[in-house]
Design a protein that fits this description.
The structure is a single chain. This protein is mainly α and 297 residues long. It contains 14 helices and no strands. The radius of gyration is 18 Å and the shape is globular. The protein starts with a helix and ends with a helix. The mean pLDDT is 80.
Length: 297
């Protein structure tokens, strides 16, 4: 079941990220990032209320640590989303997405250290394959891997930062959800999502109000283009939260990296971006490593 939910999350996330990338001509990086929270929070709260009403178990008892975990995970996701959109600006949508897939390495490390859910040996070997693929992608065509230290790709830096933020957010969602006891996974997932979206709306809203007070008005003026981002964000985030209530964050996020295949299709068909053969090869290495984590981790 967690595999099917993860596939659904991957589809939602790919479409939402592409839609955010298309908003960049009209919105700043911060505003394009904020769309997913300010429009997604009301939808997630409504979905949470319906599921709790429908569930025989009712509302879970929420421990104090839940709120600290959710706020920390929410802030990490805000930073990650801004970094990801910055990476798109510095390279393009597909390559920026691949850079952010260093998340799979960082989720594995954070899961082992923070939650106590380490990978097996072949899982770690596959993680190294992901790292090699991302490094190869960051280098100009024909540049040996040993020259990575001399080469600085600003898009790669932003993408890796995005991966770190998404990794911390994933581990936090898993940790927060499992702290809610034995309630059904749908209830735990949506309660976690609604709490995190609300915290993100408040935290990121204060930041934008201070730095870019006109951006919120722009978001609502372009509501026909921004509302789908909010809806797809809730669909994706809910699916991730539910999947991570069923299985470890490392395995869920690793399988979710099949998003790479969808990303290149969307990049070509919707955003009309072109890529070199070396970029496809490097992305293929990343994908093989990701499948290794999923199957053998």
């Amino acid at each position: 079941m967690w595999i099917a939910v993860t596939f659904l999350a991957t589809i939602f996330q790919t479409l939402r990220t592409a839609a955010q990338a298309r908003l960049r001509p009209d919105l700043s990086v911060n505003a394009a990032s904020y769309v997913r929270y300010i429009l997604g929070a009301p939808i997630s709260i409504a979905a949470c209320a319906v599921v709790i009403w429908w569930s025989a178990d009712g509302m879970p008892t929420i421990p104090t640590r839940f709120w600290f975990i959710v706020i920390g995970a929410g802030v990490a996701q805000i930073i990650a989303t801004i970094a990801l959109l910055t990476s798109f600006d510095r390279r393009d949508y597909a390559i920026g997405t691949v850079y952010s897939k260093t998340e799979v390495i960082q989720v594995a490390i954070f899961s082992a250290v923070i939650v106590g859910e380490p990978l097996r040996l072949w899982g770690w070997i596959s993680v190294v394959a992901v790292l090699i693929g991302v490094i190869k992608l960051a280098l100009p065509p024909g540049t040996p891997l040993r020259h990575i230290v001399r080469h600085r790709d600003r898009a790669a830096q932003a993408g890796v930062l995005a991966g770190a933020g998404f990794a911390l957010a994933s581990v936090g969602i898993r940790w927060a959800s499992t702290s809610l006891g034995d309630h059904p996974v749908l209830v735990r997932g949506l309660v976690t999502l609604a709490a995190m979206n609300t915290a993100q709306t408040i935290v990121n809203g204060i930041w934008i109000q201070i730095r870019e007070p006109d951006s919120i008005g722009v978001i609502f003026r372009h509501w026909k283009r921004t509302l789908p981002v909010g809806a797809m964000s809730v669909g994706g985030s809910a699916s991730w939260a539910i999947a991570m209530s069923m299985e470890t964050a490392a395995k869920v996020r690793s399988l979710g990296q099949l998003e790479l295949l969808l990303t290149f299709l969307v990049s070509r068909a919707w955003l009309h971006q072109r890529h070199q053969r070396s970029e496809f090869i490097a992305s293929g290495i990343v994908l093989v490593g990701i499948l290794g984590v999923t199957l053998f981790g």
